[in-house]
Design brief:
Order of helices and strands: HEEEEEEHHEEEEEHEEEEEEEEEEH
Largest sheet: 6 strands, antiparallel, barrel
Radius of gyration: 46 Å
Strand order of the largest sheet: 2-11-14-13-12-15
């Protein structure tokens, strides 16, 4: 009986050992496969926080205005004979814009010339009689009273000549006013009155001319910005500003602040500025809206990061910083104004910190390990590096 049991136990023991060995081998293979399947740390681009002296700019909404604007009205009344310009074109000072029928004023000039000639003839006669009276007075051939009368007649003739000459000048001036010319260089509007219509002196609006080069850009800033601008003017340098018009992506136009108002608007707490902007080709029009970027302060040691590295969590801003052990940690920051391609960080970072600027979507949680690749902080420099590596 014992031999029989012993015969049974030996195969069972052998099977048990084989099963345990198989399970062990399967466990080792699974562990090896798990170890082989563990992914490497994700690669991210990191850049060191820059510290540099920067000038901070702020943006304002402005409107373009013409330094000179003229509502053109006739100085004499008459019917319009000719509209001598193309509506909306650029004109020069002295260019003919409208022609009023000159014939009535030409007649006035002719009449004034005749009146002057008559007065000059009477003056000549009065002068001769006064000279004759002087000789007769010396020989006592006429009385003193008659001599005085002839002198008075001479003086009246002189006055008549002066009045006739003034009348002629006035008539010639009215005739000149029938040629209505542009008083300034600029762009002309449409013709409000067309040919054949009556234009009344000093009343009828004919057209409007506005200057186009240079142009003014008016904008308003808050009290803090106003104080900084005033300090710059007191230092003897007018702030240089940049202007961006509707439809433009960049602040491509330079301008100079030449005027700051003498008081703040009590209702809005703002101060008005005016910048002068060149417009040599007449491309921009008065009345256009514009965005103005003006320097408001200067920092000698500003910490800056790429805007793309800054993430938002409700009302907080943060970045991912890579430590010496290549693990990432979340760092809350206090952002300031932009400076070109970068964002000024007022609190939360230190110079030399390595901030993740690309590959943020690969970071699943703080504390995970990454494979950092050092790049430049400024996007333009990173692009240059990428092109260089590709070549």
């Amino acid at each position: 009986m014992d031999a029989h049991l012993q015969g049974i136990r030996t195969p069972l023991l052998t099977l048990t050992l084989l099963f345990a060995t198989a399970v062990g081998l399967v466990g080792c293979e699974a562990h090896s496969e798990e170890a082989a399947a563990a992914p490497p740390p994700p690669a991210v681009d990191v850049a060191q926080v820059e510290s540099d002296a920067v000038t901070l700019w702020d943006g304002f909404t402005g409107r373009i205005a013409a330094p000179e604007s003229v509502d053109l009205r006739p100085r004499v009344s008459g019917y319009i004979d000719e509209v001598a310009f193309e509506e909306g074109e650029l004109v020069k000072q002295g260019d003919l814009l409208f022609q009023i029928d000159p014939r009535p004023y030409e007649a006035h000039v002719d009449a004034a010339k005749a009146q002057l000639a008559r007065a000059q003839s009477q003056l000549s006669l009065a002068g001769s009689e006064a000279e004759r009276a002087r000789h007769l007075m010396e020989s006592r051939a006429i009385s003193r009273e008659e001599f005085d009368q002839r002198q008075a007649t001479l003086n009246e003739a002189r006055a008549s000549v002066a009045a006739a000459r003034a009348e002629l000048d006035s008539a010639q001036l009215d005739l000149e006013y029938t040629h209505i010319r542009s008083p300034i260089d600029g762009r002309v509007s449409r013709a409000m009155v067309t040919r054949g219509n009556l234009a009344t002196s000093d009343q009828t609006l004919l057209t409007r001319v506005v200057s186009v080069d240079p142009l003014y850009v008016y904008f308003e800033g808050d009290e803090e910005t106003a104080l900084e601008a005033l300090n710059r003017l007191d230092a003897g340098s007018n702030p240089q500003v940049r202007v961006r018009l509707a439809g433009e992506a960049d602040y491509a136009h330079d301008a100079v602040v030449d005027f700051i108002d003498n008081q703040l608007d009590a209702s809005t707490g703002t101060l008005q500025y005016r910048a002068v902007m060149a417009n040599p080709d007449g491309r921009f029009r008065p009345g256009q809206f514009a965005r103005v970027s003006m320097p408001v302060s200067r920092l000698e040691h500003a910490l800056m990061v790429d805007q793309k590295a800054v993430l938002t969590d409700q009302d907080r801003r943060y970045v991912y910083v890579v430590g010496d052990d290549d693990t990432v940690s979340r760092r809350n920051i206090e952002p300031g104004r932009r400076s070109g391609e970068l964002l000024v960080v007022e609190n939360g970072l230190e110079a030399g910190d390595r901030v993740v600027v690309n590959g943020l979507q690969k970071i699943l949680m703080p504390g995970m390990q990454v494979h950092p690749e050092q790049v430049a902080m400024r996007p333009a420099q990173r692009e240059s590096q990428r092109v260089a590596r590709a070549q």
